[in-house]
Amino acid sequence: MNSQINVSNWSLALAFILVVISLVISYRQKLKLEKETIISVVRAIVQLIIVGYLLKFIFNVDNWLLTLIMQLFIIYNAARNGKKRSQGIPGAFVISWWGLLLSTTITMSILVLTGVLKFEPYQMIPVTGMVAGNSMTAVGLVYRSLNQQFRDQQGQVFERLALGASPKLAAGEIVREAIRTGMQPTIDSVRTYGLVSLPGMMSGLIMAGVDPIHAIKYQIMVVFMLLSATGISSVFASFMAYRKFFNERWQLQLPKK
Amino acid sequence: MTKLVVDQAGYQVEGRQIWHDISFELHDGDWVTVVGPSGGGKSTLLKAIAGLQDITEGHIFLNDEDVMRLPIGDYRQQVSYATQSAQLFGETVRDNLDLPYLVRQQTPNEQQQIAGLEQMDLPADYLDKAVTELSGGERQRVGVLRNLLFPPKVLLLDEISTGLDAETKQVIWRAIHALHARERLIVLSVTHDEGEIADAQDILTIQNGEGARRHEQSN
Boundaries of each ABC transporter domain copy (chain B) (predicted)? Predict the structure, then answer.
């Protein structure tokens, strides 16, 4: 890859001025975000340095098993994050893990089998990150939507159960709405691609000197891939998680936060 | 023949005993009025009988079978619980009147639904009316109708006429009395209504965590 962009350490250090601007705003406006900002920036720098060296190492070794392990590690981290957003839904980690594994595996397999991507670490790892990251966001939204709806519609769910409805029948509308909530942001952002923002992957390729016409092909692939990934993970998480709001006696049980 | 037995039932929630050692037996056609102070656990007792909450002590039997062992969905179709200020779900009245059919894996029968609406003094075109457009009284009529479309063996009424206008009350009670006379179902009705209590012949009082039943033989 020819490096048309190569940020020197010196110019990067100067770009730290941008952080200072945000710190000044926080200080002047008494937002009390200074400490948090500094911690986030330091964390980001440290994490990225580690990941940078790790990726360089993995790319050099170019071993399929190591690539696979790295992909699973990404999914594991995403699943842990998904659990955090579940507000106490029992078994949320396991649901997130299987949901993300399923959506990532299906999506990546199709991309590899159709020849769009090669099973090479420098392609597999970043794309797995995108797929798992977007699935994670979708799963988080699904959990939040389920929690919110079960609280708001407690009475309606109760009435359905009282009439003999199974949890599946009693929560049908809630589940559908949760799936929609999980997928909606992807559909919305895809709609404005190219009009409002040049999406991440395309921007990266263009900055790296790739012909924009070539770059859009990758971006179109990303659209397909994100729709599939958020769709699969939202459906899986909704169908697995709604059951956790009921006990085996078909009684509504809201998770304790 | 239907027999509902509550045997030394008790209910505890978060370490607090709501009631204990409640026992009674009901047969076809029994109509029991449940009275007692607010917060005394009348509503909890009805929900427990409906299997919407589980008792923490004792047993409830329907036709000699322990309720804890019966398939809960089938049980709730036979032991039907209706509450005050019924919450309607979905978008239209039809969504609400379809559910009893869906629960039984049946295709909704529009003629029956319309007949039900008319029995509740509501016109047929209410079937496709949005639930948000109904008045409080109309909502309660649709709510109760959901419980009556398939006559249950036991009907649990949790203050269903509280806060309703006289006309709505009359319509709802007329429908329930007609069904009770025809199907000889067991009715347990929680109420604070003086008139209803005065007419009652079979009274269960839930007070200070205990239940006492007083049955006046009418003949």
Answer: 4-219
